[in-house]
Amino acid sequence: MADEKKLTPRAEDFSAWYNELVLKAELADYAPVRGCMVIRPNGYGIWERMQQALDAMFKETGHVNAYFPLFIPQSYLQKEAQHVEGFAPETAVVTHGGGKELEEPLVVRPTSETIIYSMFAKWVQSYRDLPVLMNQWANVVRWELRTRLFLRTLEFLWQEGHTAHATHDEAEEEARKMLGVYRDFMEGWMAMPVVTGRKTESEKFAGALRTYCLEAMMQDNRALQAGTSHNLGQNFARAFDLTFQSESGSMEYAWNTSWGVSTRMIGGLIMTHSDDTGLLVPPLLAPIELVIVPIYRKEEERSRVLEAAERIKRSLGEWERRAPNRLRIEIDAREGITPGAKYYHWELRGIPLRLELGPRDLEKNQGILVRRDNREKRPVSLDTIGEEVEDLLELIQESLLISARERRERHSIRKPISYDQFRQLMEGEGAFVYAGWCGDGACEAAVKEETKATIRCLPDEEFQSAETPRHCLKCGGSAAEEALWARAY
Ligand SMILES: [Zn+2]
Question: What is the Cα–Cα distance from 109 to 93, expressed in whole angstroms?
């Protein structure tokens, strides 16, 4: 079986490890078109759970879902380009339809600001129509040259929130609020700690006034931008004539925000928690939380163990503390496969808990629970298994976040270092380096050119160092801000 061959260890080749894991755990596969991916049920099951959790959080914060079309008139993007300097999406363009050349080419959406704000312009007349708080779940296309499963593909799935407000301050509050929602999700559900902050002028979304982001550290000490939230100012409102009559009767341009996260988060999840054996999914996002592996030799044992497994599955499913959020359980009753091979199969796929159940265990009214994260084994009485399983799942969820945070802090540098040391570090094991920046784009660009590291963000106060750095990492001049530097995906 393809399963049996071990993954390349992370320490040997992190990137090979990642690719092999995605394929062998059956999360995704390469599609016939270069740069496109097929998301397989194991991967899509994680995405579905991400979607459900986020969707509930968006609705709790007052947003509603809508759907806007895949095709966008090319003139819309040109209109945007006139207003938004530096906006050049890698677009796919449809020139023919029904066998005829189109009068106006259609762009396959790279993001939906243009079409959404042109529709808002139609729907919003007065300050009474504001705010508009909308989200859409969709796919987008960016014609990327270098692609990697989940991290950068031609087509990917995401959500994009788009809002319109009467004032700058309301838009700013919304952009910050959604950054907080993303952080709660990434830490609470993905167990992936993030640093939040603002992008520099050169790293922000071209159409935005300010871009906020969430940066997570992967196990190779590189950063992954896991989500962004933009205060768009009035840039798009001006381009698409999104105006409203204010309370005092004057006509004003609306203020917009947009914010998004994508299937890229699955890549982040993999590179945050998984190990040389395979995937490790935090329980809250695991399509299966517990797998029961029946162990037997003789036919008589087989029926007894399988019956017990079914009984346990049923009782856990109906177990009061969990209902109606039922425990997601699978019994691996496949014939002709050894228990050891089954363990490996489920470890590779990242299922957080396993219950081993054999005839001798049943005589003692027990089973053996094994944690995927630290391999710890413990016998549990079948009378109290519901509580044991629930407690362990919660514990695993918590310890994944704690160990990811500890790992990040171990590889974060907050003491002053020379530019040479920084350069060596970036070429070697990598790190999150908190250091001063004079605010000059030339220093930022030189660092990028020389070390491939970028300013991931100007971190929010909570993440800033106790002692504010005094000198720019690059030029040694006086620091205007503290920046987080790292190589990134
Ligand atoms: Zn400088």
Answer: 9
